[in-house]
Amino acid sequence: MKKIVKLIVLVLVVALLYYGFTTYPKLDLISGFSAKSVASGHFLDNRSLELIEKGDNDIPLLDLATNKIDEAGKFATSAVYGLKERKAIYREGLGATLINEDFDVSKPYLLPKRTKLVNDLSFPYGNNEPKDTVFANVDYAKLKNAVANAFDKTGGKLKRTRAVVVLYKDKLIAEKYDTGFTKDSRILGWSMTKSLTSAAFGVLVKQGKIDIYKPAPIAEWKNDDRKNITVNDLLHMNSGLEWEENYSTICDATKMLFQSEDMGKVQMDKPAQFKPNTHWYYSSGTTNLLSRILKHQFKSQQEYLDFWYSAVIDKIGMNSMVVEQDMSGTFVGSSYGWATPRDWSKFGLLYLHKGNWNGEQVLDESWVKYTVTPTNTSDGKYGAQFWLNAGGKFPAAPKDMFYCNGYQGQTVAIIPSLDLVIVRMGLKEDPAFDFNGFLKGIIDSVKKS
Question: Among the residues of 162-283, which ranges form H helices?
Answer without folding.
Answer: 192-206, 231-235, 252-259, 263-268
